Amino acid sequence: MRRDERKNPEGPTGLPALLGFFILNYGLLLLVSISFFDVHTPVDNRILSPVYVATLTLVLCLSPNLSTTLIQGRSIRIASIIFCVVFSVSHLLGAIPWLTHSYSNGLGYASRAWKQSALIEHINGLDSKVPIFTNGPDAVYILTGRPAYMIPSKVDPGTRLVNSNYPYDLATMRKELEMGKGVLVYFNKISWRWYLPSEKELKKHLKLHLLATEEDGSIYQVERKGNSAAGR
């Protein structure tokens, strides 16, 4: 069979077209999501990883046709092989330290720092009936199995509009902390929730009484009038 007869003009074009369609629609989906639904959507390495993989696959699919069209001979093939080797080695060198660190210390809430958190140990020692308000309810639930409530947000992270109910939400939280003898746990390691009030703001508006402090955060109770008078 001749080389011309083995060519299938319809075969190799299917996957590149599908990949191009996916990349275009994924980008449009992100644009629509950020514009109309959730402006807080992070355009980072994690969310763009599907586009990255699809683009690499698309380049691999198109490279034989491009090399045949642009340059005839061995030079382009040798250059392509060198580029692929350098590209693979650079990624491997970057991946090895990350894999070593993740294997030794874990990632996210599964990391050694979170699992050995002194603040989490304090929470484990609390009565199970004590309500917990915190800037990290996900961390509390994952690491202790206890439900926790998010402290009120000053800004809606989806729309970036100021929360007009914030004073009411803050007063409601204070009331629930007083009635249920609850605690407020503030993790200073959680810095990505920019829309929440700072620890300093909460201490000012709620008149908090410090129960415990550790390197990774503090635990407070609302200072009651009786306790305040007694301490004077």
Give structural notes.
- The protein has helices at 3-6, 11-37, 45-70, 74-105, 112-115, 118-124, 137-144, 166-179, 199-206, 225-230, and strands at 132-134, 149-150, 183-187, 208-214, 217-222.
- It is of the alpha/beta class and 232 residues long.
- It folds into two domains: 3-107, no CATH class; 112-230, no CATH class.
- The protein has a five-stranded mixed sheet with strand order 2-1-3-5-4, sandwiched between helices.
- Helix 7 links the parallel strand 1 (132-134) and strand 2.
- Helix 2 packs antiparallel against helix 3 (45-70).
- Residues 8-12 and 227-232 have low confidence and may be disordered.
Structural Rg: 27 Å
Strand content: 5-15%
The main β sheet shows up as:
5 strands, mixed
Count of the domains = 2
- Helix content bin: 55-70%
What low-confidence regions span 5 or more consecutive residues with pLDDT below 50? 8-12, 227-232
Strand order of the largest sheet: 2-1-3-5-4
Strand and helix order: HHHHHHEHEHEHEEH
Structural class: alpha/beta
Number of strands: 5
Count of DSSP-assigned helices: 10
The N- and C-terminal alpha carbons lie at a distance of 100 Å
Mean of residue pLDDT?
Answer: 81
Form type = elongated
